[in-house]
Write a structure and sequence with these properties.
The protein is α+β, with helices and mostly antiparallel strands and 158 residues long. Helix content is 35%, strand content 16%.
Amino acid sequence: MVLSEQDRRLIAEIQEGLPLTSHPYLEIGSRIGASEEDVIERIGRLQASGIIKRMGIVVRHHELGYTANAMVVWDVPDERLDDIGMRLGNQDCVTLCYQRPRRLPDWPYNLFCMIHGQNKERVLHTIDALVDSQKLGDIPHKVLFSGRRFKQRGARYV
């Protein structure tokens, strides 16, 4: 797909995030000289062509009162990775779940999931309940709480 100037302007607008209004595509359209329908159609074409891989929301958990953020790292046997990853990723308490390569000998973990809570005790209780409900007691894991916040943002293209 060859990007038009209008496509480039649209990408530049949405990479900073959508406006928090009831009609964000209408507002974006007014900024770039396009209709709301045209903005929605262009975004759909950009997604279908793979230029835009995904659109999502960046939630600032701390501002919502979720100050205990834990990354749970798991050393899952390769043959069980897909099954356990899908099960964990489908749990309401898990906000992210993804695979990463092990870095042996120091880092045996290959599955990562993020759990947010209002305090460490609740998060630890949630993790214990998750291990029990998903029968993961035999899977080695560690809980790593965030000690510092970094700026969260989406991809930058323009």
